[in-house]
Amino acid sequence: EVQLVESGGGLVQPGGSLKLSCAASGFTFSGSAMHWVRQASGKGLEWVGRIRSKANSYATAYAASVKGRFTISRDDSKNTAYLQMNSLKTEDTAVYYCTRLKTGYGYDYWGQGTLVTVSS
Amino acid sequence: DIQMTQSPSTLSASVGDRVTITCRASQSISSWLAWYQQKPGKAPKLLIYKASSLESGVPSRFSGSGSGTEFTLTISSLQPDDFATYYCQQYNSYPFTFGPGTKVDIK
Question: Percent helix, strand and coil across chain B, each rounded to 5?
Answer without folding.
Answer: 5, 50, 50
